[in-house]
Amino acid sequence: MHDERDAIIYVGKAVNLHNRVRSYFRKIVGRGPQIDRMVSQIARFEYIVTDSELEALVLENNLIKEHRPKYNTMLKDDKTYPYIKVTVQEAYPRVLFSRQMKKDKARYFGPFTSAAAVRDSIELINRMYGLRDCSRRLPEDIGKERPCLNFHMKRCCGPCAAGNVTQEEYRARIDLALEFLSGNYAPVLKDLTEKMNRAAEEMAFEEAAHWRDLLQSVEKVSQKQKMSEGIGEDKDILGIAMETENADADAVIQTFFIRDGRMIGREHFYMTHVGGRSTGSVLSDFVKQFYAGTPFVPREILLPEAADDQVVLEEWLTLRKGSKVTLVVPQKGRKNKLVQLADENAALILSKDRERLRREEGRTIGAVHEIAQLIGMKRIHRMEAYDISNISGFANVGSMVVYENGKPKRSDYRKFRIKSVAGPDDYACMHEVLERRFRHGLEEHESAREAAGGLEGGQQKADPSLSSFAVFPDLIMMDGGRGQVNVCLEVLEDLGLSIPVCGMVKDDHHRTRGLYFNNVEIPIDRHSEGFKLITRIQDEAHRFAIEYHRSLRSKAQVTSRLDEIPGIGPARKKALMREFASIRDLSEASVEQIAQIPEIPEAQAQVIYGFFHGQDSL
Questions:
Q1: Average pLDDT over every residue of 358-380
Q2: Do 594 and 618 contact (CB within 8 A), yes or no?
Q3: If you ran DSSP here, which 8-state letter would residue 269 be given?
Q4: Rounded distance, CA 412 to CA 467, Å?
Q5: Does 397 lie in the same domain as 357?
Q6: Long-range contact pairs involving 19-27 (C-beta distance under 8 Å, separation at least 24)
Q7: At 294, is the secondary structure helix, strand, or coil?
Q8: 214 in a domain, yes or no?
Q9: Which of 149, 154, 81 is nearest to 118 (CA)?
Q10: 520 strand-pairing partners
């Protein structure tokens, strides 16, 4: 489905496409305001015929991933999951971190939900078994280079050096690591305990402490495997909780990852635009989008309710995995209890998130609404704030920060180096900043209008190639009172723009006290969310300007008197600094002494001498 701008707003599939499309235009009570809103925006349809339902499912998934349509239920997740990779195909295998599961004859363990935990586990395994983590090609490179620091720290058995360890001995270490990764911790715990006790008996207390620390790490890892399904299989358990109150509702999918019968982790995911959709439809969309992006597909996926197109989904997952995959809705027993537990977790996360979003909305959208009411505006979406920074007129700079719906939009922040003002004149600096900002925006609009044959509105960004300057604010916030506001109004009037301008007024202690709007200072409740937002905007504009000014000062300070001498570039500057210990030594040197430096010709030596002695040349 395309809208009037030809943007794709929805992608769907059906065995009978005619009936599916016709259903959107029937007067069906209870289908939800989101679908009604979508239907009102449809300008045209585009359809593609496939040979099977499976092909349609794959095509639908690819189109959704590519175009991310506004009204499709979308998985809010772009992460890839970490694996532990053991390169058993190598003569001297390594244990590595990987985010991809390739068909390269290596053994993979995972996926895991925590990258930090995976890295800790790899470090622990390498330390326990003295495995290499280098990229040397063995056995080809054995003896070519001396062992690295890990060997000398006794963290690696040093297979890169001849005579340290045979290939069979190293392979035995790898076998123990594989046993550990498979969940058999008992031999490792026993071995570490024996080594710790033996070292303690021999009064090698540092070594005993080393084995003790490793023992505690393994015990922690083994305790994380307490939840077991009891059957040594790979499966994912899904639970779901959905909002029902609003059209732009979200859903939470809770996933438990069971590998070899043990729960290795859990993760929750958000699905957007689920208003008016059935649980089965949302589950179907999640399965398609999630398992299209993860390299591992388990043998069994437990669902709280049957997914739409379940048979086709199973066929697709089976093709992806290369072996049979089943979607199961358990009705009783242990599996049913696990699905119920996943449902409860999803509901808990959704409840907490709803409360967090409610608080966040009060701090952002609610605060913007308060400001709009204070100054008599119907709505405010985008606010821009400006500030000037300098020290006694040195390196005048300006800042522009942008807030949309009460949140900072840092990608649209801009900084200005003042070109036309030499001294400490904040009003003149602000005039230049504002004129450059809005003139740039008008020029972009004019260019876009000429290219597109007419651009309506002028207040919205119509072309993705346009910069943030092309988007004009609903409200301009000036850091100051009447003076700064009048400067802004003067610039807008000269450019033919009409945008409301507010001043953020501070008291004698440099604290925000109110707003200056339409020649009136409006007091604000200091405890209101609107007041807090104004303070945040003012502080952010000031911070952004100060940081830019500080960076310019730092660059200006990293200079030398040598930079002032004509003809001295980086190479000659480096040669002079290498020959003379200080500027003073150079200033006391004769022309002959300076000319002895190979990089400095005699004519340049005379220029340098003259610079320090107030002469153009000798």
A1: 84
A2: no
A3: E
A4: 8
A5: no
A6: 21/45
A7: coil
A8: yes
A9: 81
A10: 517
Give the total number of structural domains in the chain: 5
Smallest CA-to-CA distance from 441 within 413, 416, 415, 471 is with: 471
Do both 437 and 518 map to the same domain?
yes
Q: Token match 């046993």: residue?
A: 179
Given this model, what pLDDT does residue 475 score?
A: 94
For residues 32 and 28, what is the distance between their CA atoms, to the nearest angstrom? 9
Residue 351 sits in the same domain as residue 395: no
Distance CA 393, CA 416 (A): 15
What element of type H or E holds 415?
strand 414-417
Cα–Cα distance measured from residue 465 to residue 443, given in angstroms and rounded to the nearest whole number: 14
153 in any annotated domain:
yes
Closest CA to 187 of 218, 144, 141, 152: 218
* Torsion angle (degrees, nearest 10) of CA 63, 69, 75, 79: 70
CATH of residue 330's domain is 3.30.420.10
Angle at the Cα of 536 from the Cα atoms of 530 and 542, rounded to 5 degrees: 140
> Roughly how many angstroms between the first and final C-alpha of the chain, as a whole number?
82
Whose structure tokens read 């977790």? 345
At residue 215, what is the residue type? L
Q: What is the mean pLDDT of residues 250-278?
A: 80
143 pLDDT tier (thresholds 50, 70, 90): confident
Residue the block writes with tokens 């850091």 = 479
What does pTM read for this prediction?
A: 0.48
- Per the CB < 8 A criterion, the answer to whether 434 and 489 are in contact is no
Query: Amino acid identity, residue 128?
Result: M
For 330, phi and psi rounded to 5 degrees?
A: -70, 140
- Is residue 200 a part of any domain in this protein? yes
Region 200-225: mean pLDDT is 75
Range of the domain at 477: 375-556
Residue type, 71: Y
Task: Kindly report, residue by residue over 405-440, the tens digit of the pLDDT.
Answer: 888 998 889 988 888 777 778 888 899 999 999 998
Dig out the tokens for 100 from the structure.
Answer: 């991809």
Beta bridge partners of 217: none
Write down the residue that tokens 């339902």 correspond to.
Answer: 53
Interatomic CA distance for residues 430 and 476, integer angstroms = 13
Q: What six digits make up the tokens of 588?
A: 């006391």
Q: Is residue 7 part of a domain?
A: no
